[in-house]
Amino acid sequence: MKSPIMRIVLISTPIGFLGSGKGGGVELTLNSLVSGLISLGHSVEVVAPKNSKLHESNVRAKLHFVEGEDQISWQHQNYNSPVSIPDNSLLVGMLEKGLNIAKHADVLLNMSYDWLPIWMTLNLEIPIAHIISMGSESSVISNLISKVYAKYPNNFAFHSKMQANDYPFIKKPTIIGNGFNLDNYIFQDSVKGPLAWVGRVAPEKGLEDAVYVASQLGEKLKVWGFIEDEMYASKIEKSFPQGAIDWMGFLSTDELQKELGKCRGLLNTPKWNEAYGNVIVEALACGVPVVAYKRGGPSEIIQHGKTGYLADPDDKKNMLSYVEIIEKIKRQKCREWVEKNASADIFANKVVNWLNKVMHEYK
């Protein structure tokens, strides 16, 4: 049975404007979700930082801009850090605007991993649902999620089972995976191309391990992504022979998929439990097999020996051994997995079913 049309107000990440790359995977997830929700006939309004841009396929979504001071990502704070809200807070401004718009909507969907929107769940009559985009990165946020969960057990959704395991008090987590507008990704059969790495350039992403693997093969590693930590990037460059890294910068989805599809494999080297692993699915959608460390969301996405390989965590030599046999992976199988498991429509349907449960709690 088709779900009734929903009016959804979506709060973006306060870490950076959409299109900047600062928001990491949340930016891509938001665009994919908006695309899927619109294709299902739902009404979507997005509250985001000034200068944000949605993908051109999302022109039917209304975009509201807010100015203010960016929030610091919890990835770059200590686990026991206190909550910090800057003057002229972007997060506060986005929530104020979102709540005002949501007076005439069915549900407010929060995509920012931060204390304030979760706390507000206990103090408002408007249904607020939260897509949690990280594992447990903050003691104060995890404790608050536990408190809110006791009253509203349906209000939180996670991208993977491994991510949800970081919140052991949630006994039956809602797992929504992720989804992608596959019209934006072209399949390419480039079995002889270079090796690729995609992501924010920051210590928790483990780029140095991927450079090691490529250099052992006598190859340059193509690196796409926003350089979040310049000192970290410089340190890696100095640790390897000159020219070991081909810095390609941060590209839009359209530009990235054209170049990524030419590569014979993607290396994924996180040092932490990724909630999902958007870049892995982007690569698979282009037909590019992936070799990743077996931790977090990627371990649930990659079918070992079919769409790529899962290496022992932090074992660069084990990863190298799998890269050496990556041509055994049939690229068409990579694309087929995404079509069956991670399209924007599949993702949006999961989210809609979840939001219906959230809204039912408030009736």
From TrEMBL:
Matching entries from Gene3D superfamilies are given as: Glycogen Phosphorylase B
The record, for SUPFAM superfamilies, names: UDP-Glycosyltransferase/glycogen phosphorylase
Keywords in alphabetical order: Transferase
Its transmembrane ranges are: none
Domain Glycosyl transferase family, chain residue ranges per copy:
197-340
Cited Pfam families: Glycos_transf_1 (PF00534)
- PANTHER family (alphabetical): SULFOQUINOVOSYL TRANSFERASE SQD2
Q: What is the protein's given name?
A: Glycosyl transferases group 1
Question: What is the species listed in this Swiss-Prot or TrEMBL entry?
Answer: uncultured Prochlorococcus marinus clone ASNC612
